[in-house]
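Q: A small favour: would you put together sequence and structure tokens for a protein?
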Amino acid sequence: MGDLGVRLISGIIGLALLIGVLLLGGYYLGFALLALAIIALKEFYNAVNKIGIKPLSVIGYGGTVLLYIAQYSETITSGFIISLCVIASLSATVLLNDRDIRDAAITVIGILYIPYLLFHILYLDGSNYLWIIFLIAFGTDTFAYLVGSKFGNKKLCPEISPKKSVEGALGGIAGSILVTMVYSSFFDLSPLWSFGILALVGSIISQLGDLTASRIKRIAGIKDYGKIMPGHGGMMDRFDSIIFTAPVVYYYAYYFFM
């Protein structure tokens, strides 16, 4: 079986698992996101380790678990957990001779970047807005690839991602708006134009999430974050745009629809 076949089968299996988890929701979604966050955080920490930064992994993984618990607790808040992680990480630079401020900073950035942003998905569990996160991100990726491979001429960020084009980026935005508005119309979400704006903003942020993860890979000198998904790379390679899109959709929905 060729690389394309492996990539296709892996993608189909991954998509089926994702849809199943989103449909089940509740603790199934929560545990899936916890596992995803820990794996993605490990991939991120491994990447920055390539350039001599040594994150405090125990604090990172512990903070991830505590952030997950905070989603279901009435007394523990995300702000409290983040505060603990900041204090613990900075204190480690005093208590451990082999750790410096860069290690502490990357430890905290990793927690904020991956589990904290990713867990915004849980806030939309059981609502129609949950699916919009993935429609925007995957719609953008799909249409950007289709349009870019056919019409792409002007490079978007050649130093970060040589294959991405301006035409592809615009196609991704248009595709995101299209699929989001079709979905919103089907479920009678209104006003319809507001979901078009959400898709526009979300698509731009989604692409920034993709480019941010690519930039980190370039700095670290790696091709993929991992190999957990054959033909696709690691969890960070597949969910980099979701990480940025989730809080955008949540706060947009919170302030305008909820």
User: Anything to note?
Assistant: The longest helix spans residues 192-220.
